[in-house]
Write a structure and sequence with these properties.
It is built from 10 helices and 58 strands. With 832 residues, the protein is mainly β. The two termini are 40 Å apart.
Length: 832
């Protein structure tokens, strides 16, 4: 995380959920997985993210459920800490500071108060080496605890958590690394090592890839690079060990796992097939094929009801029996992104390349994939060296009703194939439907494409520029009254045989700028007249961007000779220029701000500025390592109210960008981040809870209680807590460190009891009320006679006033009942 004043650069959405093996809870209701700097808790039934456990300051490298408490979990990170979470409520319980970067974590019920972690060792070798150490977690009431007591268990281990496993409930631990298998027995304090040759006679590769241990028998299963699985037995003897070989996978076995009872062994690899081996009869196998991508991890719930697989396309598949019950899909980034980052105007979703031949619509707010759209509409063939169609360009119009895509396929001995497709949004399916396909829209590769974003535009216009030296204007028209709109070419433009590289519309759609190498041409879309040409030094222009709102008269561009230029369109002259190696230039669609990512000394700097002002609005050095080539401004649903001048550019939109490592990053304010952290750390009590004695015990008294009612309490009754700090601490404190239940129960029961003095005082008005009821019942029969013989004074008064009708017995009882009702809830409702 990079921090500068009030601005922070953090991972927000789109993090990898397949980085480490996921964990399914004991009741199979929740799934935990590492995701960037946090741990995500998903519901296995609804696929929704229930909690996001935030607190680590670096990459989370492992998650395990605490063996002694199945409602808590440990997480480790490269920040050198182990954190204990109550994942059902999303509360951080304790932080253990180890002081070293942790690459994986392992636990066993056999070892209480101890966790096993993989840390790096100081070595003179060029390659980094790792060791397995036991960390003794001290018992302390503090939330931040130092854990300096470390003891080495196995040296020279793999950083891959799938290569280390406990066996028989923690009696031994097995570690596979390279070509050797190492088994350490805790009771004997003895280590056995087994080696394999590098290559077999048939050319197979024996490198260990993963390891699994049978929960009841002395059997270790190892997966290898050549796709074979070996079952090791009698490994507690150095020379008398044996192993049998299983083979189905055509490539490396990436993950294996035994079921809780040990009846089946699950394995997976690049074939996207989950193989289930019968432990007692390995010749019998069951398969779950077509899981979509290569399997990277396999996990099984402790009760055996569910299993899950992680995949290389940032997906977790939850399996019940032999059927897929749920899919948790993260943001698919792959090795590269061909399209630019776009925001769908309708759903506000991030749009970019997903699966091969697809576009993915990813919700940044919910951090969840909405859907994949098949653009190529051809079956993808997994074959090395086979050239297939790729989606390289995408654009949306201002309303989000139309989307344009470009797909291309390069072949060695044939011409390049191009397809331009127009997609219309369907209200019924809430997705895009193919409307028009234009085969070979240009003679060469398309370099740029954009829609006219003017809201008042009567027609939908699309511009495409190509290496063939032309740019084309496409318009959607109806050929017949009963037909739908179709895409037709309206204009073909060129300039002196030069190759166009980029194009963009002004905010009101009245101007179109197209760059032809070192020349910028300005066109009128209404008449297709060339209005002006802006020449530059002999270097090609890479980016173009119009100013907005008060800066709409400016046009900005970057060149290959590291210049940022700003032209004044009113005078058709260069307003200013500066020397900057800008890799990406983009404007905020809601403000005048322009963001420029500048490469410097192997890292990227960010400058946010307005074209009319010489001083940048915001600047930040070393945002990330490498070059940033993909970024987008995403409009906020709720505008921030930041008073700091350096962070006001984030009030309307949020800036997202992709690093070279394909990590999705964003800029956020410190107040916004602390608000999210506070919501994840504290358990908030809902104010709509009923007014019960237990509610009062927690310190939530009525606000409208009068002083007389408070002074009327008996001294014999213990006072209830008045929302003190102790009560607040009681709410935040985990259940396992609270006082005994008998102590809390006795305090609660005493608060409900009434003393003898109060009972005698309350009984007197009750008796008086009963006597008054009796007298009223007796007097109701004589009401008419008493009314016919009034006193003279009262008779004189009643003669002047209209006589009121007498109340019946039922009305008197209803009146007494209404007087006894508690109307304090109405007062609280009105005050809220």
């Amino acid at each position: 995380m990079v921090e500068h004043g009030d601005i922070r650069v953090v991972r927000r959405g789109g993090s990898k959920i397949n980085f480490r093996q996921p964990v399914i809870t004991n009741d199979s209701r929740l799934l935990l997985c590492a995701s960037g700097h946090s741990v995500k808790v998903f519901s296995t039934s609804t696929e929704e993210c229930v909690h996001e456990l935030r607190g680590h300051t670096d990459l989370v490298t492992g998650v395990v459920v605490k063996p002694s408490n199945h409602l808590q979990a440990y997480s480790c990170s490269l920040d050198g800490t182990i954190r204990l979470w109550d994942f059902t409520d999303g509360i951080l319980i304790k932080t253990y500071d180890i002081g070293y970067s942790i690459y994986s974590i392992h636990t066993s019920a056999f070892h209480k108060g101890v966790v096993f972690t993989v840390t790096s060792t100081i070595s003179d070798k060029k390659s980094e080496s790792f060791q397995l150490v036991a960390v003794h977690l001290p018992q302390s009431g503090d939330q931040l605890v130092k854990a300096p007591e470390l003891s080495a268990v196995i040296s020279d281990v793999s950083s891959n958590p799938g290569a280390i496993v406990f066996g028989r409930g923690g009696e031994y631990i097995a570690s596979a690394n390279g070509l050797h298998l190492e088994v350490f027995f805790f009771k004997k304090q003895k280590t056995y090592r087994f080696f394999l040759k590098k290559d077999t006679k048939t050319g197979g590769k024996n490198t260990f890839m993963c390891v699994a241990a049978h929960p009841k028998d002395d059997c270790i299963a190892t997966g290898h690079e050549d796709g074979k699985i070996r079952l090791w037995r009698n490994f507690n003897h150095q020379k008398e060990y044996t192993y049998s070989t299983l083979h189905w996978h055509s490539n490396a076995v990436s993950s294996m796992c035994f079921t809780p009872e040990g009846t089946n062994l699950l394995s997976g690899g690049v074939e996207s097939v989950l193989v289930q081996w019968r432990y007692n009869d390995v010749s019998q196998r069951d398969f779950l094929p077509r899981l979509g991508a290569a399997i990277t991890h396999i996990a099984v719930s402790p009760d055996g009801a569910l299993s899950c697989t992680s995949h290389s396309d940032n997906k977790i598949t939850i399996i019940q029996g032999i059927k897929v019950s749920a899919v948790l899909q993260g943001l698919v980034t792959g090795e590269s992104v061909e399209t630019d980052l776009m925001v769908d105007p309708r759903s506000k979703a991030l749009v970019l390349n997903g699966k091969p031949g697809h576009l993915q619509f990813y919700s940044l707010k919910r951090d969840k994939l909405l859907y994949n759209l098949d653009i190529v509409q051809q079956e993808y063939i997994h074959e090395l060296g086979l050239q297939q169609f790729k989606v390289v360009k995408v654009a949306f119009d201002a309303s989000g009703n139309w989307m344009a895509t470009v797909e291309e396929r390069k072949q060695k001995d044939a011409e390049q194939e191009l397809n331009l497709k127009l997609w219309a949004f369907d209200e019924q399916t809430q997705s895009f439907v193919l409307n028009t396909t234009v085969a070979d829209p240009h003679e060469s590769r398309i370099t740029a494409m954009c829609f006219c974003q003017a809201a008042a535009s009567q027609t939908t216009m699309l511009i495409s520029a190509s290496e063939d030296g032309h740019f084309k204007a496409w318009q959607l028209r109806r050929l017949a009254p009963d037909d739908g709109p179709s895409c037709l070419c309206d204009f073909v433009g060129a300039y002196r045989g030069l190759v166009p590289h980029c194009c963009c519309f002004s905010a009101d759609g009245s101007l179109l700028a197209v760059s032809f190498q070192e020349v910028v041409t300005v066109w009128s879309p209404a008449s297709w007249e060339l209005l002006a040409t802006l020449s530059q030094p002999p270097k090609a222009i890479r980016n173009l961007c119009f100013g907005r709102l008060s800066c709409s008269k400016y046009l900005l561009g970057t060149t290959d000779d590291h210049l940022l230029c700003c032209w004044n369109l009113l005078t058709c002259s260069l307003e200013w220029s500066t020397s900057m190696d800008i890799s990406l230039l983009l404007g905020d669609p809601l403000t005048e701000n322009i963001a420029a990512f500048c490469c410097h000394a192997g890292s990227t700097d960010l400058f946010v500025f307005k074209p009319s002002e010489p001083r940048p609005v915001f600047s930040l050095k070393a945002v990330c390592s490498g070059k940033v080539t993909h970024a987008v401004f995403a409009p906020r649903e709720e505008m921030l109210e930041s008073c700091e001048e350096s962070s006001q550019w984030l009030n309307h939109s949020q800036l997202y960008f992709l690093t070279q490592c394909m990590d999705l990053m964003t800029f956020t304010t410190k107040a916004e981040e602390e608000k999210l952290m506070a919501s994840s750390k504290q358990l908030l009590i809902d104010d709509s809870v009923a007014m019960t004695p237990f509610y009062l015990l927690l310190g939530k008294h009525r606000k409208g209680e009068s002083g007389a009612a408070a002074s009327g309490e008996s001294a014999g009754r213990p006072p209830l807590p008045q929302g003190s700090g102790a009560v607040k601490e009681l709410l935040r404190t985990p259940a396992h460190v609270l006082p005994s239940t008998s102590f809390l129960c006795s305090m609660f029961v005493k608060s409900l009891l009434v003393s003898v003095g109060d009972a005698s005082e309350e009984s007197k008005p009750a008796e008086e009320e009963m006597e008054s009821e009796k007298e009223e019942e007796d007097s109701e029969g004589d009401m008419e006679s008493s009314a016919s013989r009034p006193e003279r004074g009262s008779l004189a008064r009643r003669s002047a006033e209209p006589a009121a009708p007498p109340l019946t017995k039922a009305q008197l009882r209803e009146l007494r009942r209404v007087k006894k009702l508690d109307h304090s809830w109405l007062t609280g409702l009105l005050r809220s």
